[in-house]
Design brief:
This protein is of the alpha/beta class. The protein contains nine helices and 13 strands.
Length: 304
């Protein structure tokens, strides 16, 4: 990706840990590169350990922009945060047990959890995805079938019967007017052959999602739940000064957390695409972060 002997290669090598690398993919043909998994060091010999911090996703803050669009950096903090949760159906379903525990962990964020009742569960999710009025976040915890990124589907029940599976045609085509952050926490929801791109990801971005989070491979169910819980902790936390945390920064901190605390590289399996500088905060708060001098002057003028 960064050929030896080029200026670009030198610039990337000179980036210090924690620096930001923003990739703008300008070629209009479908392409897929798992940027966090790119490795900057020399590959170890068989049997020798890999230097995990030479993966770009653990070394740098990576932003991958595929569909830039003019938008506010503020996600409405009062809008619905919708969690679409796996409902299972069989007593020995391990994913169901993980989903139930996960829902309890996430309850402190007061999301709107769907399906709300046991009747017509697929229809509830489909109706919401077709017309998610006033929504800032769509989070799905389920299973997925994506192949090489083509003809993906999301499975929320224990079977492959139509009543348990949402196809792309069940998820809507109209613009997402609130341009929410979309996080589909299931296996391979960002994965694709390098000459293609993931249709599920494309569908949400084309409908107006400001950013999309998916996984590059199969992820253990328990880890997927833990990863999302830590991500939301960072996303909704405020700094000591009260400043909100950008969604892309929350993902970078979550990757770092699992490496620092558990020596786990599992965070590299998650891909963040598009605008990473979006916040769950009021527009004036976000403006104040990016124009502190002007905001301070305005505040003084109001006081005067």
């Amino acid at each position: 990706m960064f050929p030896e002997g080029t200026e670009l290669n030198s610039l990337v090598k000179e980036l210090a840990p924690g620096d930001r690398l923003t990739i703008h993919w300008k070629d209009c043909t479908p392409q897929h590169v798992p940027w966090p998994l790119l490795y900057r060091g020399s590959l170890p010999r068989p049997g020798e350990p890999v230097q995990a911090q030479d993966f770009l996703g653990l070394r740098l803050r990576i932003s991958h922009v595929v569909q830039p669009r003019p938008t506010t950096r503020s996600l409405d903090d009062d809008a619905v945060r919708a969690h679409l949760m796996y409902w299972g159906g069989q007593a020995n379903d391990e994913t169901l047990r993980a989903a139930q525990e996960h829902a309890l962990e996430l309850a402190s964020w007061q999301p709107t959890v769907l399906p709300a009742t046991d009747q017509g569960r697929k229809e509830q999710l489909s109706a919401f995805l077709w017309n998610p009025a006033s929504v800032s976040l769509i989070y799905a915890f389920c299973q997925a079938a994506t192949g090489a990124g083509n003809r993906p589907s999301l499975r929320f029940g224990s079977t492959n019967d139509p009543c348990d599976v949402l196809q792309l045609t069940d998820m809507g085509v109209d613009p997402l007017t609130d341009q929410p952050l979309v996080f589909i926490n299931a296996c391979e929801t960002s994965a694709a052959d390098h000459t293609y791109s993931n249709e599920l990801q494309n569908m949400f971005l084309e409908r107006g999602s400001r950013a999309y989070i998916g996984s590059e491979c199969k992820v253990p169910t328990s880890f997927a739940a833990r990863f999302a819980s830590v991500f939301f902790h960072f996303l909704y936390s405020r700094s000591p000064s009260g400043a909100p945390t950008a969604a892309g920064e929350a993902l970078a901190q979550t990757r770092k957390f699992f490496w620092d605390e558990y020596r786990s590289i599992g965070g590299l399996f998650y891909s963040y695409v598009n605008e990473d500088q979006i916040f769950f905060a009021k527009p004036l708060e976000v403006a104040a972060m990016h124009r502190p001098d002007r905001s301070t002057a305005q505040a003084r003028a109001r006081q005067a």
